[in-house]
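Summary for the steering committee. The consortium agreed at its last meeting that each partner would contribute one worked example illustrating the joint modelling workflow. Our contribution is presented below. We chose a case with several input lines so that the handling of multiple components could be demonstrated. No manual editing was applied between input and output; the record is shown as generated.
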Amino acid sequence: MATEPETPVAASAKEPAVPSLVDRYFTRWYKADVKGKPCEDHCILQHSNRICVITLAGSHPVLQSGKVIKSISYQISTNCSRLQNKVSGKFKRGAQFLTELAPLCKIYCSDGEEYTISSCVRGRLMEVNENILHKPSILQEKPSTEGYIAVVLPKFEESKSITEGLLTQKQYEEVVVKRISATTATS
Amino acid sequence: MDNLSQNGEGKISIIEDGSIASKNSNLNVCNVCLGILQDFCEKEFIKKVCQKVEASGFEFTNLVLSISFPPQLSVREHAAWLLVKQEMGKQSLSLERNDTVQLKEAYKWITHPLFSEELGVPIDGKSLFEVSVVFAHPETVEDCHFLRAICPDCFKPAKNKQSVFTRMAVMKALNKIKEEDFRKQFPCPPNSPKAVCSVVEIECAHGAVFVAGRYNKYSRNLPQTPWIIDGERKLDSSVEELISDHLLTVFKAESFNFSSSGREDVDVRTLGNGRPFAIELVNPHRVHFTSQEIKELQQKINNSSNKIQVRDLQLVTREAIGHMKEGEEEKTKTYSALIWTNKAIQRKDIEFLDDIKDLKIDQKTPLRVLHRRPLAVRTRIIHSMETHYVDEHHFRLYLKTQAGTYIKEFVHGDFGRTKPNICSLMDVTADILELDVESVDVDWPPALDD
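What follows is the complete predicted structure of the assembly.
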């Protein structure tokens, strides 16, 4: 499997599948229609060591063809910029604490649309991806790796429970399928 | 019945050896040494201690004797000194503290030759083998307590101590206290105890010995240290156990501490000359080995497993360990990696990597260790690379890097958090399929001809 799946369809292998970096170390969890906004799906990559990487799911509007990102901002309120997050020591003191609905960043598109990306998991914010600030297209080209949004470290005690409110890969695929058939049914 | 005045005033008489005859003639315990110079200097007692030493199963060619007296003994010694000073003063003679022989010194003068003779080895202050004898005298434990009222800051409770009245604390207070205050609180001469001291502990211990060597790792399924989560062992055995278990047995040690000049992941092999390691064997019962015996031990370890092999196994000193740790931070390492690319590549697509020298890379703490390491950016140098084309989607990369470089992350980029990386240099998506350590460039421990 050479490229990262843009949509959650099983990749048809042209050659024997080599599990990707994400496949080897991470479990994919999903949250659909975040904050009630249709199709604003997030994908949380959970490492075997409990660290979570927040990314956009393939079905997110920003990743659809034709969307052009004008800019990305980590200033989520007048007093809070995710860029100011400072973490020190082995126990990551000083990190901004995030709840599931905490905003991570705002994405501004050329068509005037504005999207807020949320954390989806509770935990300490380790870092936000500064590479997408300088080159927003990376977010669309490689949403599951170089285009990640943020890295979050859940509390040790909560590392298993954080996935309780999230969808598995299979459940997410079902949601997407239902959406497609719902739109085709109404059209 | 009380013997003589308890208060240091009035009529007292001191007999030369410091003991005061008791009206009860069957109790004749010295009121200064509490019986230590009376009952515990005899060959019989020494013999009993030596029997215990011999039964403990330690191998030793010399020993250091560590004697511990009850703290209240210092108080009595102090009282006796004040008295003798006073008497000599009456004869216009002065007496300094170092004009007197400390009780412990006298005890050692008497007993060292006796121990030496009984065990057949010399007493040596630098010996790693320690025999410790601890005396106690429960009857007079409260003798020290008056010192706390006068010098309270000497007796601050500390975490690990059961009683604040340690020997050190009592000595400190005795040095501080004024003579008049002491004599008001403590009878000079001290009153006679009913019983002699008792021995509460006779322990033997041997200082740690160190064994060093280099190990090769041929398994891609072996952790450095035991991998246990929630009490469950996730992977069979470990590098340290495969090497140290044999040493633990042969040296008859209580436990071990394994350290090495860096380490590799579970799925990484260590080839070439191997990685330097050192094992501290704690409280070993057997310590003398010829180089032939060590060679045989090495052979035994090598015969017992094909997952690891050791070489240059030798005894070293504690100081020598520093060389190895120095290696971890300062010395270069060489690796070989089998790399997969998503795009089809030709030989010419990888040749440019051979020409890159001393490439500086910035590595954020890899995600796979971020849960237990601080978040930071580390600059590292890839000194040189050499490529070997395998096929359209694979090539082997040999690299020589600075110590502390994360190779896997240099290949796949770790979500772009290691920059530059093979993906960015070649403009492909690359991943690492296999990694081997080819050499750890530390020239310690000294190579032995096998």
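The longest helix of chain B spans residues 72-90. Chain B touches chain A through 21 residues (CB under 8 Å).
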